[in-house]
Amino acid sequence: MGKTVVASAFGGPEVLEVIEEDLPAPGPGQVVVAMRAIGVNPVDYRLYSGEFGADPALLPVRPGMEGSGVVVEVGPDSEEVESEEVESEEADSGEGGSEHRGVRVGDEVIVYTGTGAYAERVLVSAQDVLLKPESVPWDSAACLLTAGGTAVDAVTAAGVGDGDVVVIFGAAGGVGEVAVQLAAAWGARVIGVAREKHHDFLRTLGAVPVAPGEGLSERIRRIAPRGVDAVIDTIGADEVVDDCLALGADLERVVTVVAFERAERDGFVAVGVGTKASDWSRPETRPILVDLAGRGLLDVFVGRRFPLTEAAEAHRALQQPHPRGKFVLVP
């Protein structure tokens, strides 16, 4: 028996409850992972809030998309099912990193569950785990794939590359901080828009910080007098979108991860759930993220840790103004 968090009804965090249940034995190509840390994302509570529908047939809702842990059981043939490949300089040189091989008991892994990660143990396909680099902490590893997948989509859709100047709005947020690091790792000059209290943090990520508000375009022009090549919005407010468009980048290189209606209306690019530019599971982004994290080029800042049994409190806190950083649950 193991603890699992489920939503027994649609509503607010009060509908979350902790139950005890047995996992079935892993079948062919499946593994059981004992979770060490579980990433908390806004989409987790949106799933049971009724935002995506309230069909009783969907209950109980099992929140949680990602985490990190240790493989404790493997099903038949799982050692022959290759986990997602992470092609890195370390792996190629034999000096570390993740390798492309079957999953084994004892492997430390990063896991994408899609749903149901809020549990002491999860049953997943061996293809949905990646070997965790030793240098990446459990908490950071647990928060890497979901916000990171959105960030990879955004930076890729914006065509960010060597020598580009890219402006990222919401640069200190969960998606923004990953987008900053990705763009910097890919050779871009990054201008990060965030409140002044986050500016020192953004400098550590390799960005030139600027404060939002009146005069923003002029402040950015002083930093990049030749103009900007790409703009990424992780906030979605109309005034932020207006600021994005005012910077003069080509519309095909202006990308939002939130303002879908504005993107359709004004002709710029949207990435995320249900958009043409994205696949929600984003399996192709995962090895990129794990490789960069393993090489020390990408980190995820964790702000708060909650026991698994306090998932409801974590969701209440996430919906309120809170200090910078991702939330994790710890079984």
Automatic annotation (TrEMBL):
<dbReference type="InterPro" id="IPR013149">
    <property type="entry name" value="ADH-like_C"/>
</dbReference>
<feature type="compositionally biased region" description="Acidic residues">
    <location>
        <begin position="76"/>
        <end position="93"/>
    </location>
</feature>
<dbReference type="GO" id="GO:0016491">
    <property type="term" value="F:oxidoreductase activity"/>
</dbReference>
<keyword id="KW-0521">NADP</keyword>
<dbReference type="InterPro" id="IPR020843">
    <property type="entry name" value="ER"/>
</dbReference>
<dbReference type="InterPro" id="IPR011032">
    <property type="entry name" value="GroES-like_sf"/>
</dbReference>
<feature type="domain" description="Enoyl reductase (ER)">
    <location>
        <begin position="11"/>
        <end position="329"/>
    </location>
</feature>
<dbReference type="InterPro" id="IPR013154">
    <property type="entry name" value="ADH-like_N"/>
</dbReference>
<dbReference type="InterPro" id="IPR051603">
    <property type="entry name" value="Zinc-ADH_QOR/CCCR"/>
</dbReference>
<protein>
    <submittedName>
        <fullName>NADP-dependent oxidoreductase</fullName>
    </submittedName>
</protein>
<dbReference type="InterPro" id="IPR036291">
    <property type="entry name" value="NAD(P)-bd_dom_sf"/>
</dbReference>
<feature type="region of interest" description="Disordered">
    <location>
        <begin position="75"/>
        <end position="101"/>
    </location>
</feature>
<dbReference type="Pfam" id="PF08240">
    <property type="entry name" value="ADH_N"/>
</dbReference>
<dbReference type="Pfam" id="PF00107">
    <property type="entry name" value="ADH_zinc_N"/>
</dbReference>
